[in-house]
Amino acid sequence: MKIFKILFLLLLCIAVYAASDSDIWQHIADKNWIANYVHQTGFSGLILLLSFGAVFTACGGPRQLIAFTFGFAFGSVSGTLLCLLSTLVGAVCTYTLASWVFRQALIKKMGRRYEKFKRFIEVQPFTKVLLLRTFPIGSNLFTNLLSGVTGIRLLSFMLASLLGYFPQTFIFALAGSGVGSASEWQLIVSILLGIVSMLLTHRLYRNYKQSTKSSDRLGDHSNV
User: Fold this and answer.
1) Any signal peptide, and if so, which residues (predicted)?
2) Any idea what DSSP says for residue 97?
3) Distance of alpha carbon 207 from alpha carbon 212, whole angstroms
């Protein structure tokens, strides 16, 4: 197991170094520069861009920016898929670091936040991670770290993250693609999907609150 940890850290260091030593950091918000960069560098530039997206989102950068930029550079469908891949890799890297390497240090550092998240996530962890991912606000970084520290199954974490990431990723990639092609219908669809995403998030949150109240009532009855 120790050799796998060392190899993982080595690969992660290489990816971080490659991404940090790139002009992409200076131009990530410049969609035209990104599109030209990929056109000029080809496959190697694409790999570096995906590595950058993984490092950027793993460090807490807004995945919506990556989705919008990728949508402009690659189109709505390809931009969505590439952004999901990049963001998910970043999330898994952070999760793995928290679970394998820094678990005890993070538990000590986070204290009450760790205990609160553990109580929140211990029942139906898949649904809880999915709920956190669909919120338009919140810390992607802390969700990744706390999920790793609390020992959520990696497969459940990945599937919930993938499903939760998809609505906003597609919306922003579609918006970026619409800007790139000056397509009004794409912008309109992205706005409508944004409304649908907010309604879905509200429904998931309401179901979570109802299940919490039901559990509380059952607990009260069991104490009678």
Assistant:
1) 1-18
2) I
3) 9
